[in-house]
């Protein structure tokens, strides 16, 4: 799910720091045991998420769509002492693998893992977040944005993954439901005067919105 040329992707990958051993193992286990393993954030995007949290030092992160925990671990690696990540995932069959790798990474105490439909869980959350990572079902991105907005502090970030959808969002002849939903999400955020935003063309595109 990359938008850059495969050879450029390979070059980017080769010139990044090596993926840490636990994340390599998680990636392998995800590919061996879980359906749709390509949903995983992966090496370079993972490094980016970690460096972002090391730079911004968020105390509270909310991840919507955890899958096997790869992006959650990458985000949690940058949490300062006392920081927490709340991870929402609808598929409770993934609990064992998420739990195993957060524990191996020494980050289990930073994880608040909740299973269920994020649309129903988010309204029950009482924390204020410094960072939200939206990476669940694409057709609900707009709803997730609306649900989390008031829970993000001023100066906090709402980051959404896959906003280029393999480049299909920029092709007016592509109008399947997911492409249309992501296009609408990108347009909504662009029109929202409460945020400053841009799309980072990393892997499948990250929309980064800072709440003013
Ligand atoms: C693209 S994957 C997440 C990948 C993960 N963030 C990573 O980078 O490794 C999307 C995940 O969202 C979950 N999901 C889909 N709809 C959801 C919902 N309504 N509530 C919570 N999780 C949901 C799916 O089960 C899937 O595991």
Automatic annotation (TrEMBL):
Record carries keyword Transferase: yes
Which Gene3D superfamilies does this one have? Vaccinia Virus protein VP39
Keyword terms, alphabetized: Methyltransferase, S-adenosyl-L-methionine, Transferase
Q: What's the domain of life for this entry?
A: Bacteria
* The keyword Transmembrane is annotated on this UniProt entry: no
* Pfam families to which the protein is assigned, alphabetical: Methyltransf_3 (PF01596)
Record protein name field: O-methyltransferase
Q: Which organism is it from?
A: Algivirga pacifica
